[in-house]
Amino acid sequence: MSQNQYLRAIGDLKGENFVIPSYQRGYRWTSKEVKALLQDIWDFTQIENQPDFYCLQPIVVKKNGEEYNVIDGQQRLTTIFLLIKFLQNKDHFTITYQSRRKSTEFLKNIQHSVDREKNIDFYHFDKAYGYIKDFFENDDIDKKKFENTLIDKCKVLWYEIAKKENENEVFIRLNIGKIPLVEAENIKALFLSKNDELDSEDLKERAELWYKSEIEARENRDFRYCVLNKVDEKNIEQKSIKDDILRIDAYLKAIVPYSKEEYYLFDYFYKSYRDGTLNDRWEELEKSINTLSGFAGGKANSKIDREIFHYLGFLILSGKNIDSLYREWKNNTNKELFAKKLLEIIQEKISKIKNIEELHYKNDKEKIKDILLLFNLEYLICDEGSNEYFKFNRFVLEQWSLEHIYAQNSKGIKESIESKNNDDIIKWLEQVLLHIDENDTLLKQEIEQSKEKGKFEEELFDKINESFKNNEALHKIQNLTLLDKESNSKIGNQIFSRKRKEIQKLGEQDKLIPIATKKVFEKVFSTDKSNPDVFGKKDQKDYLAEIQKRLERYIKGEGDE
What we know:
The protein is an alpha/beta fold. The chain has helices at residues 31-45, 74-88, 101-108, 120-135, 143-153, 167-175, 183-191, 200-228, 249-254, 264-275, 278-296, 303-317, 322-331, 335-351, 365-382, 392-397, 414-418, 422-435, 441-453, 458-469, 485-491, 496-508, 515-521, 537-550; strands at 3-9, 17-20, 54-64, 67-72, 94-97, 154-161, 236-237, 240-241, 400-404, 480-484. The strands form three sheets. It has a six-stranded mixed β-sheet, with helices on both faces. Strands 7-8 form a two-stranded antiparallel sheet. It has a two-stranded antiparallel sheet with strand order 9-10.
């Protein structure tokens, strides 16, 4: 959403003409929202060393001749209209409703209206006006002081969208959360507000650092950002992160204690703004940017830098909050000790996963994914000669998931069955025999007889599928690896020999293939490499042994501290 964005004082809105488009719902603020707004403004008036303004939530508009169509913020704007109407007994600006013409007249004469019960909008206008009247009946509230603060010191974050943009589409996108008016923009407004300690040059430097940090976090398809921030899948579109996501929030989150509250970041910085410590927060933000952008840059060659990079990325991707990790760095700014601490945090996490060989695809997907990701990272960390850094950005954006190494049903040879390609079917059945439960002698006999006769009934494939379905070994970690969502859906059901060739092709096409996925299909971990087209029980056993060996240092024994 391209827009002209700045802070605008309530006093500056005098004489403006606002139109509430027909696609907007009616006014519905309750006592909770109205009283919260009133109390916040009054609390602001009580601050001893008062900042130069109080920042209200955003208003999104589109210029239409001499009017502004209100796309978002009509509830707040209407409440401000009612508030000034009560305080000054006049209209500070006009509000017109495209589909509810009588509402405009009702608002103009709200002190004298008597037919408020006849219309649901009138009812809510009247209720809000009543909450405002009740608030000022408190003798402790200085009405004039409140009015002066509202008009002169309260500002809205004003978003004016471009003329070429379709306001209906913007409204829809805002309301389904695709273009959130994110906290970072509001926080930026706080940091760029003037105070006695800053001049215009200081503000310019702040704006430049903010912009530069945003650009760098987006570089190389969000390389740094995906190391420092866990990305919600709903914010991924066509293998890229939505443009309205402000990447600087990773650095903001690093210096603010995590909370589940929706606007905890803005609340934290706004509190600093009110108590006069915002400049201290800016210094912290600068340090956060300088430190974390270096750790997440993936450009250093030293072993310790590569360890920190991979540990950070793993912990963030597996759900750790960046503020707790950055706090560990601030406790002792020594790279070796920081890397050791990150390792300990990973050890604590991984040691809770008992008996990895028993983890099941159906119930333990996230645990298996963590184990296999760490397996890949450890492989890279130990390969000091390559200086390669794991591409967390592509891993996130291409939405990697678990894939069965050996396909657990007959879909992979569906074409061969339909075209009666017996050679392919026989090769597949020979692999099937390696995986069928040892006690299922009847099915084994049926397969052998079908091979001899060269006749393959549909009933046989149904029995094999049912046998695979009940074969728990095929759903354990020793038969699982990581593959991106697109490739998984394309080659997921193919037999091992075909998967191996497809993955080789994908690698040649510059598709991201994690090192361990590549190696398992090359049978690097298998002690018997005589048949590259088969991945049997012995191969699974060797693969599991390699995983356990590589992850030994991440699993604490009972005697470890």
